[in-house]
């Protein structure tokens, strides 16, 4: 396996869809807080599944009073939920004679289900970002894959990222088989056949892309460097900003050890979490592991991305450079104070950060 080995990256797709949404906002196509029913009329009158009549087994539904917004979709606070995480939705599917989350389908066929709570008044991992991708398609008149190719992948030189791997010979040649950890910790091929390489009718913005490490790191690096290739600085800040006014619903979900092991694996308990537009945010950091505002997410086949430590490095670099520039303006370079220990320390700080920041820039441009 190499850095250009290709694979299904599943929910790592979500970050790229969030970036696409913010690009459209920058272009004035829509906003974070208008109802998505402007582009998706099927969500103009969402219903909340509250239970079932124990006599007739009929689903009990209530009309939602709050419109669903794009901000809710991206932060998983829209009221939507994956079938597999909701016994109510599983029972609703069964009452209709439907299979749970059928593959080779469309976003509407797979994810047009009742809500499980009032929009904005809860949190549950959901297909909201698949619907966010449909908003991008409706607003731009392009498939999500075509939009990302034009506005992200081509800009960054990502030649191995696609929603359609079966149509790309180069991607298929480097596709690695999935593996599982068997007895004694030994890695063995996945013989379950649960996740074949498929191309659904729709481009699923929540889990549909195939990529490689060398490609995907370019997305994260662009955000880390805030280089303007994908988003303006204010959009990058919004992407990382905690979006949930009340994080207790998210924290309640993570209080379930089973959910925590899936959504924030290998992180200790007691971390203060919120959710941004691109991933989950460690608001106060994780002692010994991550600073304040670290954002991360993962994909089902054990694909992960983490962003935050280098963004802090960049902020420290810019702060150090600003401090030194201001001091130089105030004092002539020939002043005896220019050799003061504090000034020398700041000069050393700037030189150190300049070297490290330059290495990041070279890494980004060489990939």
Structure description:
With 367 residues, the chain is α+β, with helices and mostly antiparallel strands. It folds into two domains: 1-217, DD-peptidase/beta-lactamase superfamily (Beta-lactamase, 3-Layer(aba) Sandwich); 310-366. It is built from 13 helices and ten strands. Helix 12 (309-330) crosses helix 13 (341-366). The longest helix has 26 residues, at 341-366. The chain is globular and about 60 Å long. 35% of the residues are buried.
Helix content: 40-55%
- By CATH, the topology of the largest domain is Beta-lactamase
Q: In CATH terms, what is the architecture of the largest domain?
A: 3-Layer(aba) Sandwich
CATH superfamily of the largest domain: DD-peptidase/beta-lactamase superfamily
Which word captures the global form?
A: globular
Summing up helix and strand content along with how strands pair, one would put the structural category as alpha+beta
Number of helices: 13
Which CATH class of the largest domain? Alpha Beta
The number of domains is 2
Q: Specify the biggest β-sheet.
A: 4 strands, antiparallel
The total count of strands amounts to 10
């Amino acid at each position: 396996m190499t850095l250009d080995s290709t694979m299904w990256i599943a929910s790592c797709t979500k970050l790229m869809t969030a970036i696409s949404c913010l690009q459209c906002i920058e272009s004035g196509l829509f906003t974070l807080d208008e109802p998505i029913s402007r582009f998706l009329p099927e969500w103009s009158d969402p219903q909340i599944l509250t239970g079932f009549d124990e006599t007739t087994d009929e689903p009990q539904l209530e009309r939602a009073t709050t419109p669903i917004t794009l901000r809710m979709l991206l932060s998983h606070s829209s009221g939507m939920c994956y079938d597999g995480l909701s016994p109510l939705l599983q029972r609703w599917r069964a009452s209709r004679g439907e299979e749970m989350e059928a593959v080779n389908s469309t976003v509407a066929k797979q994810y047009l289900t009742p809500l499980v709570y009032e929009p904005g008044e809860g949190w549950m991992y959901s297909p909201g970002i698949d619907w966010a991708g449909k908003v991008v398609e409706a607003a731009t008149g392009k498939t999500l894959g075509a939009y990302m190719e034009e506005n992200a992948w081509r800009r960054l030189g990502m030649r191995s990222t696609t929603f359609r791997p079966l149509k790309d010979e180069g991607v298929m040649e480097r596709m690695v088989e999935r593996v599982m950890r068997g007895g004694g910790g030994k890695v063995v091929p996945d013989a379950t056949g649960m996740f074949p390489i498929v191309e659904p009718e729709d481009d699923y913005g929540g889990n549909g892309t195939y990529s490689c490490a060398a490609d995907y790191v370019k997305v994260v690096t662009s955000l880390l460097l805030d280089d303007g290739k994908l988003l303006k600085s204010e959009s990058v800040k919004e992407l990382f900003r905690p979006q949930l006014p009340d994080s207790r619903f998210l924290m309640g979900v993570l209080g379930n050890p089973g959910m925590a092991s899936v959504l924030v694996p290998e992180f200790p308990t007691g971390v203060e979490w919120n959710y941004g537009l691109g991933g989950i945010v460690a608001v106060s950091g994780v002692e010994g592991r991550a600073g304040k505002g670290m954002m991360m997410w993962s994909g089902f086949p054990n694909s992960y991305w983490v962003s935050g430590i280098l963004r802090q490095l960049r902020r420290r670099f810019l702060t150090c450079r600003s401090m030194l520039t201001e001091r130089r303006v105030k004092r002539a370079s020939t002043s005896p104070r220019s050799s003061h220990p504090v000034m020398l320390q700041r000069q050393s700080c700037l030189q150190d950060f300049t070297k490290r920041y330059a290495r990041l820039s070279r890494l980004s441009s060489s990939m």
